[in-house]
């Protein structure tokens, strides 16, 4: 029987971290099913889901904190149930941008949740608009929309919300 483990690793970024972590995962006999890595400022962030036998997962639970301690990284792990692949039938890109104000992300994601849209990836970039001297942001979400959801209704509510917030954006279907 296959077991699964979610791991999040954080710390100062340096060349070779991913390679060292992947080597330890390989030594345990686990397989990396999915992963996301990002650099924030000078820091490294990695989240991955491993799969393996119970023995392999136990080895990962013991060895990964050791390598993280050697590399001065923080790690957190949690066993999880079977990882299921994302429904690829109704994948959309949700993009929006404008002046950055508190609560924008909450309002947009609440609208998506209302329509039972599952967000699988989220990226936000904030920058300073030198001409207007204000913070601006660009966001992109990748999401799975249930088949029974009306894309027209979702787009209409999304556009109305962006208008209220003074933002621009769109929802694009990826078939």
From TrEMBL:
<dbReference type="Pfam" id="PF13740">
    <property type="entry name" value="ACT_6"/>
</dbReference>
<dbReference type="InterPro" id="IPR002912">
    <property type="entry name" value="ACT_dom"/>
</dbReference>
<protein>
    <recommendedName>
        <fullName>Glycine cleavage system transcriptional repressor</fullName>
    </recommendedName>
</protein>
<dbReference type="InterPro" id="IPR016867">
    <property type="entry name" value="GcvR"/>
</dbReference>
<dbReference type="InterPro" id="IPR050990">
    <property type="entry name" value="UPF0237/GcvR_regulator"/>
</dbReference>
<keyword id="KW-0963">Cytoplasm</keyword>
<feature type="domain" description="ACT">
    <location>
        <begin position="93"/>
        <end position="172"/>
    </location>
</feature>
<dbReference type="InterPro" id="IPR045865">
    <property type="entry name" value="ACT-like_dom_sf"/>
</dbReference>
<feature type="domain" description="ACT">
    <location>
        <begin position="6"/>
        <end position="86"/>
    </location>
</feature>
<keyword id="KW-0678">Repressor</keyword>
<keyword id="KW-0804">Transcription</keyword>
